[in-house]
Amino acid sequence: MTPEQFDLLHADMLAHAEGKELFVQDLFGGADPTHRLPTRVFTELCWHSLFIQNLLIEPKPEELDDFDPKFTIINLPSFRADPEKYGCRTETVIACNFIKRIVLIGGTSYAGETKKSVFSMLNYELPGKKVMPMHCSINVGDDGDSAIFFGLSGTGKTTLSAVASRTLVGDDEHGWSENGVFNFEGGCYAKMINLSAEAEPEIYATTQRFGTVLENVVLDPETREIDFDDKSLTENTRGAYPLSFIPNASDTGRAGHPKNIIMLTADAFGVLPPISKLTPSQAMYHFLSGYTAKVAGTEKGVTEPEATFSTCFGGPFMSRHPSEYGNLLRDLIAEHKVDCWLVNTGWTGGAYGTGSRMPIKETRALLAAALDGSLASVEFRTDANFGFEVPVSVPGVDNSILNPRDTWSDKDGYDAQAKKLVSMFIENFKIYEAHVDPDVRDAAPAPAQAAE
């Protein structure tokens, strides 16, 4: 889209809005007062206004008196864009102008576009200030030891970070500045499909609270009871609620510099171990790779998991070159001596269709050991394909899952899948090789190595 087409779209959307009742919110993107983004949001739908009020940070009354928006979002679902006229691809448009600091949204009622617009703007702006924008969850322990959880939808980012033993800073979008880590948001946007009070009690409780926005969730037409297992509309059912609805949520949205970084992946090949320790160079390699599997409900048309690479675990929202984010992250990891872990919440005992999903009980136990420091003292082996360190035995964990090859009945099948996945990593990383240092290139998996 050219700047002229953006201006035409802007003018036509303003004309479309004439005579309509619009809802306006003045909110902050970012809990760090040094780096927050004052944002004004115009919405056509009332529930969209409540959604973004839940998701961003509400100013104090005295801050509204002289609120000066530095970013504007106009969201009109009833506006249908003409691709030929505006240079977009379909009647649905999300047009970002980083110079004018405006985002125009039309032709979609999916509320997530509004919050991702704020994320995209901060992703563009903050690296220039040496602040790392991140698609991640963050929680913090009683000793102030914060942990970052990177991961795409379906990897367990929200679920694994919302635990009663640690304070939740936020579940989706954050920054890492000279002051520590901070939430971009004041709320959570959790997937609701198959939600149960037994498995995820904190998130389930929010669905019973006044003010939570449930999106695409099916209600019984007579009883008005919620059916979280019903995916007739889509598997991408969502709940938007204030962070304060989570009992152990941070009331500041800020925490100190992290002690651990967790990179979550849902490996559909069943090749990756349930947890692996990464060097800083390996961490940058896997951060730039952003490997996972798209799962049903994440994107339209995806009915079964398929391997994908989304750089920085949030490729669609990264408006600068990925190496800028990767280099910034590596520098912060080195400066603050952060331990980095790759956690597979995907398949074990075989690839998708043969194996089964990694037991969440085991994942939680391994994460707890990583976060409390006890995992650092166990025996490790070097993975034959990827070169990272993998624990051999962990107290309280079924050790049979720690070596993926051992969980496969068909060892030759595992070796073939591992070789295939390694080649996919190498092929995907070619676009970054010219932009990274030799140590990061050397962190690539080695296809010539034979599996144990």
TrEMBL record:
It comes from the Eukaryota. Signal peptide: none annotated. Pathway: Carbohydrate biosynthesis; gluconeogenesis. It catalyses: oxaloacetate + ATP = phosphoenolpyruvate + ADP + CO2. Gene3D superfamilies: 3.90.228.20, Phosphoenolpyruvate Carboxykinase, domain 1, Phosphoenolpyruvate Carboxykinase, domain 2. Keywords: ATP-binding, Decarboxylase, Gluconeogenesis, Lyase, Nucleotide-binding. One of its GO terms (cellular component) is cytosol. One of its GO terms (molecular function) is phosphoenolpyruvate carboxykinase (ATP) activity. It is an enzyme of class 4 (lyase). One of its GO terms (biological process) is gluconeogenesis. Its EC number is 4.1.1.49. Belongs to the phosphoenolpyruvate carboxykinase (ATP) family. This is phosphoenolpyruvate carboxykinase (ATP).
